[in-house]
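tokens incoming
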């Protein structure tokens, strides 16, 4: 299993980034949230985390990884979700940055989020990880990919207000299609 989660920090190094105006299509959620209807349509609903997503397996909170992160001294603001189904590894990681950003203005939060994406790109560049910055839904995001042990891992990392989100798929075949299906089904319940 390949999961890359970098700890954020404000880093003012300049980087080269490929910015694209291409926006991945967004699934419109109507004002009337109908959880049962969404579940019938194949969505998994994460009300406490404010999103829905489709996945071939049932995504669950990864308690073992959460506890392992705690034991290693990492801050307790990250919620990992995971499922391994038919040779495909699906991961979602949500980090709550409110401890760092509480009391900040909307402009300060936006600046932090942009600097965090730049930090990720710098670290990925240092590690030789293929990455690019472009829009995901309506959010600035970093897309990255890694090949390891015959598997391709593709992921997108982005922010919404005081939280960061990482959606990731690892597979030995059809990774691009599986990744696109996974991330294109992601939608926030309350925008």
């Amino acid at each position: 299993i390949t999961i890359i989660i970098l700890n954020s920090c404000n880093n003012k190094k300049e980087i080269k980034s490929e910015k694209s105006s291409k926006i991945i299509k967004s699934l419109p959620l109507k004002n009337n949230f109908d959880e049962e209807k969404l579940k019938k349509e194949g969505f998994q609903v994460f009300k406490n985390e404010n999103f829905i997503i489709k996945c071939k397996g049932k995504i669950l909170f990864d308690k073992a990884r959460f506890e392992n992160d705690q034991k290693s001294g990492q801050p307790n603001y990250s919620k990992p979700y995971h499922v391994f189904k038919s040779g495909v590894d699906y991961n979602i990681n949500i980090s709550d940055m409110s401890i760092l950003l509480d009391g900040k203005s909307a402009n300060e939060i936006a600046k932090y989020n942009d600097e965090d994406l730049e930090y990720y790109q710098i670290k990925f560049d240092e590690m030789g990880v293929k990455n690019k910055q472009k829009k995901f839904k309506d959010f600035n995001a970093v897309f990255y990919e890694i090949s390891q042990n015959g598997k391709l891992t593709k992921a997108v990392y982005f922010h919404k207000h005081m939280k960061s989100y990482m959606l990731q798929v690892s597979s030995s075949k059809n990774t691009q299609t599986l990744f696109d299906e996974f991330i294109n089904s992601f939608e926030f319940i309350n925008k």
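note: The CA atoms of residues 47 and 144 lie 27 Å apart.
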